[in-house]
Design goal:
With 639 residues, the chain is of the alpha+beta class. It is 13% helix and 28% strand. The chain is built from eleven helices and 30 strands. Strands 9, 12, 15, 16, 19 and 20 form a six-stranded mixed beta sheet that branches. Strands 21, 23, 26, 27 and 29 form a five-stranded antiparallel beta sheet that branches. Helix 9 crosses helix 10 (605-623). The longest helix has 19 residues, at 605-623.
């Protein structure tokens, strides 16, 4: 008997009551010897690509990614017990033909155990994106793969590996002829089980790309990958990412190592293979992030502290609203924007996540949904509801659900995130679509209201019941899922802007992040020194790997590379000119520490405090922007 079930947790499966859609066509059994373990069972089964049971079965889509399939086998307990008139138990037999209800089957299933199940990715369709004259693997590529790295015995480690175009002579020769090529695909090459995720960042700046020491400020997020996700990602045949002149010039591969047992002695060389083509694609692909993509909730609780939160409510939801003003005709351009991949991202305590697209009338247009988020199978859930188009006046509502207490927001594997990644084309004007935390142009007219203004993220959080707003049993067999999204008017008028709300939390249980925004202030250029270097004579510091005070793990060598940029084009480092101190202050504070020749001047303590504070501001903006693409500098100014 073939039974159609679905799982909601690591436990007993739930039998589909809205439709038993899988059909057994035939089966065979081959005995190799007398042991059951060597017996080969072959089953032929079928199901419609989109079953009628839309809320218990997932669609099987013809896309570029494999589908994770789980199958289990075992026995039915056909024995039952009846009670005689004298109270004695009598074992009885039941036949499959006598079963009239699915509940009878559920009561007869025996646990299959680990030897009675199998799971893995299955590709149901042939790959669509291939070269005209060969397979996709025939594309030339560059390997952004570092030398062996010794993984520290720490629970969480972030490590940056830096690359320039000059590191790849063959690509350099191609660029001499073509000037620009297009990235067409990625192959994630993870070598260690301790790799939690890898993020490929890049920079189009010639100045930043000329010095690898600046690679931690390569902020454009090009390609994120989480453990458990497909390792191959090909762009659609009509879209590419520019590389070379007018495109990316240097890269940073940020690897997050998750080592909860603090294992020692492990080495790794995980990285990304980047495929490119000399035939430029019709469109440029972009990447948009929704939710709390820059971790502005870092340090506050997802649900609450077990010491202070005594509520019996099961959990809490956090919702982020990206308004229709972010998707005006001016931002979208003349052509429709097509989303071709969408991934939902949470961590271990995440239980449910949705990303709802609302049309200009506030009605639900599409939904990406992970009803039962499973971190053990990867930190990213790929939506099956792609491709789709973003139209003028659309908006997005990203919601994450949690129930475990004492968990903080943050970048660690033990902390939580709520982010949605949308890959799309065409990318307009060199900048990806974004939903800013602060819209300076709108704030110029109203700096006091907590309402969302312009293209600015709104936020709301609230307690939810044990079901975390999943479908009720009575709704499960409906043709259309029921989502209770607030009206557009309610979202735009009642939900506060995220950063403005965070400032109201000061003194409460949640950690406050103080944000100030200045609109219309002229930059003060009096401190700028185009020839500023860390060492007065322009020499490179001798203590290059020494960590600069301030708590942000920058080395003296990185600071030496950053200062010339800070005093010429500080916006490349995401800092306004008015926040740049004088060159002498940086030199007096750090030159001796970093081993600059003739740096013997006694450093007054107050100058240490001033310079460390100013430099901490710079570093805070940079490190606080994990998973934030460089387009943020075009849409917000945060000081």
């Amino acid at each position: 008997r073939l039974i159609d079930v679905h799982g909601t947790l690591y436990g007993y499966p739930t039998i589909d009551k809205c439709g038993q859609d899988w059909r057994l066509i035939g089966h065979s059994r081959t005995e190799n010897d007398e042991t059951f373990a060597s017996t080969l069972h072959t089953l032929e089964i079928s199901r419609s690509l989109q079953s009628n049971d839309i809320n218990e079965d997932l669609p099987i889509l013809n896309d570029e990614f494999s589908t994770n399939v789980l199958a289990a086998w075992g026995r039915l307990n056909l024995g039952g017990f009846g009670e005689e008139s004298d109270g004695r138990k009598e074992q009885k037999k039941r036949s499959l033909e006598s079963l009239q209800y699915l509940d009878d089957l559920a009561s007869m299933l025996l646990p299959h155990g680990p030897s009675g199940r199998v799971s893995g990715p299955v590709r149901f369709f042939e790959r669509q994106h291939t070269q005209q004259n060969g397979q996709e693997d025939d594309y030339p590529y560059i390997d952004l793969i570092p030398n062996l790295y010794s993984i520290p015995d720490s629970k969480t480690t972030y490590k940056n590996f830096c690359f320039q175009l000059e590191d790849f002579p063959e690509l350099q020769q191609v660029l001499l002829e073509h000037e620009q090529v297009h990235i067409v695909g990625f192959q994630d090459m993870s070598e260690s089980p301790l790799v939690h995720h890898m993020d490929l960042h890049g920079t189009e700046s010639e100045k930043l790309g000329a010095d690898k020491r600046l690679c931690r400020v390569y902020m454009d997020l090009i390609h994120p990958w989480e453990q458990g996700s497909p390792t191959r990602f090909n762009l659609p045949e009509v879209a590419g990412i520019p590389l070379g002149k007018g495109g990316y010039r240097a890269f940073r591969v940020e690897v997050h190592y998750h080592n909860p047992r603090r294992l020692a002695g492990f080495q790794d060389s995980s990285g990304v293979r980047v495929y490119y083509s000399t035939e430029k694609r019709q469109y440029v692909a972009g990447l948009m992030l929704l939710g709390d993509y820059a971790l502005k909730l870092r340090g506050s609780f997802t649900v609450g502290s077990s010491r202070t939160n005594t509520t019996s409510t099961r959990g809490m939801k956090h919702s982020f609203y990206c308004p229709s003003s972010c998707f005006s005709q001016q931002r979208l351009g003349a052509e429709n924007v097509t989303v071709f991949r969408e991934t939902l991202h949470m961590h271990a305590s995440g239980e449910r996540m949705t990303n709802v697209r609302l049309d200009s009338s506030g009605d639900i247009a599409s939904v990406a949904e992970a009803n039962y988020f499973d971190f053990s199978r990867g930190a990213g859930f790929a939506s099956r509801e792609v491709p789709y188009q973003i139209n003028t006046g659309d908006s997005f509502l990203t919601t994450c659900y949690y129930s475990e207490k004492d968990v903080l927001w943050g970048s660690s594997s033990l902390a939580e995130m709520c982010q949605s990644f949308l890959w799309y084309y065409p990318k307009q004007g060199g900048y990806s679509l974004s939903c800013g935390y602060i819209d300076p142009y709108a704030r110029a007219y109203d700096t006091t209201s907590l309402s969302s203004l312009g293209c600015e993220m709104s936020y709301d959080r609230g307690l939810v019941d044990q079901n975390l707003e999943r479908l009720e049993p009575t709704e499960r067999c409906q043709k259309r899922k029921s989502y209770k999204a607030p009206s557009t008017k309610e979202l735009e008028q009642q939900w506060p802007a995220l950063l403005q709300l965070i400032n109201t939390w000061a003194g409460k249980e949640d950690k406050s992040v103080n944000i100030s925004v200045t609109i219309g202030e002229e930059d003060d250029n009096s401190n700028l020194d185009e020839n500023c270097r860390l060492c007065v004579g322009g020499q490179r510091p001798t203590q290059r790997d020494t960590i600069v005070p301030g708590g942000f793990s920058w080395t003296c060598d990185e600071l030496d590379a950053a200062l010339p940029v800070l005093f010429t084009e500080p916006w490349l480092l995401l800092i306004p000119k008015r926040d740049v101190a004088t060159c002498e202050k940086y030199q007096s504070a750090f030159a001796e520490l970093c081993g600059c020749p003739h740096a013997t001047e006694e450093i007054p303590s107050h100058r240490w405090q001033i310079t460390i504070g100013l430099f901490a501001l710079l570093l805070g903006l940079i490190t606080y922007s994990k998973r934030k693409r460089g387009t943020a500098r075009n849409n917000e100014r945060i000081g």
